[in-house]
Amino acid sequence: MAKINLDHIRHAYGLRPTAPQDYALREVHHEWNDGGAYALLGPSGCGKTTLLNIISGLVRPSEGRILFNDRDVTQLSTEERNIAQVFQFPVIYDTMTVYDNLAFPLRNRKVPEAQVDKRVREILEMLDLSDRAGKKARGLTADQKQKISLGRGLVRSDVNAILFDEPLTVIDPHMKWVLRSQLKSLHRQFAYTMVYVTHDQTEALTFADKVVVMFEGQIVQIGTPAELFEKPSHTFVGYFIGSPGMNVLSVDVQGSTARIGDISIDIGFAPKVGKGQKTELGIRPEFMKLSRKGMPLQINKVEDIGRQKIVRATFAGQPVSIVVKEDGEIPTDAHVDFVNSGINIYADSWRVEREG
Amino acid sequence: MATQQSPSPAAATSVAHVKREGPKFSWIVPLVYIVFLMIPIYWLVVISFKSNFEVMNSFSIIPQDPTLRNYKVILTDSSWYLGYVNSITYVLMNMVISLLIALPAAYAFSRYRFVGDKHLFFWLLTNRMAPPAVFALPFFQLYSAFGLIDTHIAVALAHCLFNLPLAIWILEGFMSGIPKEIDETAYIDGYSFPKFFIKIFIPMIASGIGVAAFFCFMFSWVELLIARTLTTTSAKPISAIMTRTVSATGMDWGVLAAAGALTLIPGVLVIWFVRNYIAKGFALGRV
Amino acid sequence: MNKTWNNKAWFLVLPAFIVVAFSAIIPLMTVVNYSVQDTFGNNEFFWAGTEWFKEILDSDRFWSSLGRNLMFSFIILVIEIPLGIFIALNMPRRGIGVPICLVTMAMPLLVPWNVVGTIWQLLCRSDIGLLGYALARIGIQFSYASDPLHAWITVVAMDVWHWTSLVVLLSYAGLVSIPDAYYQAARIDGASRLSVFRYIQLPKMKRVLLIAFLLRFMDSFMIYTEPFVATGGGPGTSTTFLSIDLVKMAIGQFDLGPAAAMSLIYFLIILLLSWIFYTVMTSSDAET
Fold it and tell me: CB of C200 within 8 Å of any CB in chain A?
């Protein structure tokens, strides 16, 4: 397993990129830890698949270098990088048995047969597939096939990283959960470096130690699920993570007060906001409290989604969503309070740090 | 959500950058093959522009003294050019009949189970395996009995023997790819079967119809044995006229080559029109 | 797809059934009828039982035609199937090359079969043919009209020219339907070019190859027009295949009884062989 360095990587599919918009991937510069589980999360077209393909070696970046354990692999082919990849839909060799499927990568590398057998049996055990070892792979269910795809990566004990490209797309909903927890426990047991591409926030948040949120070709935030929830560093992260997403309100900031129309909110610190920057206040629906006093609010609709109710409302002329517990009270003459610690201030969409 | 969908080529990513398998000069293989395919056709065209004197008495890769005489012979003599008209007439008739009859049948096979369905389907396909030579004589007698000999419709009907099963097979494949829910939704929306079939279903399998039409055209156009057996003069196909004229006028190589070259044109036109569907039609594994 | 049971669907199939039955069952009954009767003209027929079948099965003429047919089918299958796969493997997958290849390669398939014969006649004659003339210049007197071997070479080359494209197009369609992920996975697994072919491309092409194989077998077994035009079945009977023999017998000599008996035997052989090939080639699917 290896640590992965992405050194000033940029990529454009056109021949001669001139403007930043020409890049499918604008400047990525990060170090990913050995044994970490990273999820690349973002809407389709955000560049996450491009980044994955750059790591796997299917795509050469236009600029920058990629290093595995400080060794430059930018010019190396996929085979030479020694990685494993699980694709969107299961890739298996239909005509081979489950056993031969798993043995295939080792046999191609001329590993002695005794060793192949030992390793394959270990992996079969690990993936709960021992009882199907002699069966033709084509007769299996989608989730078992996907496990074989994974197994072909795991048999090679020296892989640098295991990459997943939306691996649960074709799996039945009830098996998704099972497979995801199996993945998670494999990661805990064996500390593989894993990179997991998905557009599903639940998958990303439950799978990864660190979630890498991408938007329009750049990484907007890397953080633990809690960090993404509490301190989204870009309004996009706020929108994208959480359901419903963060409320973002246009405000004027003066000192430690944010003004929306004729309402003033004390935000408890004085963010540094440059002149002419677009300032916004972000607050998650969970941090807005309905009450009988506080700031005025007009409720438009209440959606009951089981354990929670979502209140769609208009606050100072802007639409907001508020999460209320199942048994929470919704007053007729509604007012609202903001939980101070849940307030984030954004300047030109990027979060302004609180000082102290 | 204000998520902006930038038109990024994420989906095309893996496609565009995967290097081709195999050696760099693999294009030589199809090139050599295409040259092999084109040489005989080239020679046919070359001869069609030569006079008989030049064909017989000198040998050259390109015509020394190109002439349009051979084409003029064909295009001014009605016994020649009517052959093309006849061929195209019965080919088009066959195409229309095959498709009109195959569409409802293919729909039935793709949507319903009924008594004897599998046997019927298999039996239809076995007709594709019947050597035309077997049927040549009984066809002649059958169509004589109905007074249909030497009519276009006789050839068109006879060609249905192998084209209709083929069309059903191809169309069934395309129809099975369309979810049944589409039908049910349409019925719920108050469409009658004929209205649904014509207004909704047929447009959805348009490419399948194109592919089926292509193959009907192809097999009817290239067939000679049955077409020749069932016609004497007024519906005689061009291919039969070619074989007859060769023996009648001695060896008029130039005219023969010109007639042959002209039979290539409809084929080329049809391929050009369906070129985007060919691979798709074959991809279904149906021919 | 789960289909609903509905016997009214027969109404949709009925027109197709009638048209095909008209063109298949009635003629076939006529053939059966002839095959068991004898005639001395004047439309008088006598019951002949299995006499014609015995006569056909006892005749050297039938067996040698059948032998030539089997030989021919074997040779062209051995050439066309691997050649077709090989060409398809090397065809471009995208870009301007794709339509060029598809259109030019499909061309021979749309040439009327007698014109195919004519084209090869024009090509191979040593007096006016490009190929025949070129061979004569380097000292080979190529004559498909007098040398049986040359006649066979001509007929086989003609069939390869005419039909290999069918195998190519089918294989190509099978190949392009393989998602790129398979190739990527194979590279990650360190598979060799040969392994990629053996474990990915060949299994994925299996279905279309089965169809290509059956079609080529059936059509080569029924071949009539092309050799009839190019060689006329000669020299002697060296390229007289079953169809040619049959037509000679039925229309040339008007031996209706034997011709009908031969038709039936011929048809049954095709059905039987196709069924055997189909069963053998799909049997590996059954075991999972």
Answer: yes
